[in-house]
Amino acid sequence: QDGLKQCLAEFRQQLAWVERLDVTLGPVADPVSQSASNTDAVDPENDFQREMGFYRQAQAAVLEALPRLRKLQVPTRRPDDYFAEMAKSDQQMQKIRQKLKSKQEAMERSEKAKQLRAMRKYGKKVQTEILQRRQKEKKNMLNAVKKYQKGLSDKLDFLDDEQTSSQGNKKGSASQRTKKGPNAKRRYKNQKFGFGGKKKGSKWNTKESFNDVSSFQAKVAHNKGPGKAKKGGKKALNKRPGKRARQKMKNRAR
């Protein structure tokens, strides 16, 4: 003990408290019991009691040292523009950022792949439903045809249904294209030339023309006039000769 005291006296320096900042106090008073807790009463095996003893002792030191620092005009709070160097370097933080970015991109790719699989699955489902509906319609039509062939039914409604189903899209598109009234070209021609008006009706038959048979000619009507050849008789005189006959006539002329 004497040696320890001698060593302590050798390296002890007589410095001001602001240079040493040493505070030796017991735990702060318990707010529940309003009394300082005895260190012997703390069970060292109980983690909660032990940590609470450390906390109250540090609290007592703060309550003692903070007013003394303020009295000595020593700042005790960090300024707002204080810059603290990070424990890790910028290169290490850049690696961490790249790793986080790669993880985010991988998650986005996985989400896109899930959406594509869901869309393919839905497309296959729709395609399967369409094929099943077509097969069902075909089966119903074949059954109706068989019934009609066997004479069990005299209705041909299935043919009309097939035509309407096949031409549904065409009719819809045609109805969209059709317009009421004439187009611009037809309207311009109607304005320029008119609608023609009512014809004279010279070729129309009347009661008088129907009863008048004076201009009727049997030979002309029955193909017996002059210049007309009889059936099985001589050919008409003004008929053009054949190709071989024309060649013979050319050879004779030479």
Automatic annotation (TrEMBL):
State whether keyword Coiled coil applies. Answer: yes
Q: What is its main location?
A: nucleus
Q: Where is the composition biased (Polar residues)?
A: 164-176
Alphabetical UniProt keywords? Coiled coil, Nucleus, Ribosome biogenesis
Q: Where in the cell is it found?
A: Nucleus, Nucleolus
Family annotation (Pfam families): Ebp2 (PF05890)
Region of interest (Disordered), residue spans = 96-127, 157-254
Comp. bias regions, Basic and acidic residues: 102-114
Q: Does the keyword Nucleus apply?
A: yes
Q: Which GO terms describe its biological process?
A: ribosomal large subunit biogenesis; rRNA processing
Compositional bias (Basic residues): 115-124, 177-190, 221-254
Q: Name any GO cellular component annotation.
A: preribosome, large subunit precursor
Q: Which InterPro entries does UniProt cross-reference here? A: Ebp2
Q: What does this protein do?
A: Required for the processing of the 27S pre-rRNA.
Which family does the similarity line name? Belongs to the EBP2 family.
- What name does UniProt use for this protein? EBP2 protein
Q: Which organism is it from?
A: Sapayoa aenigma
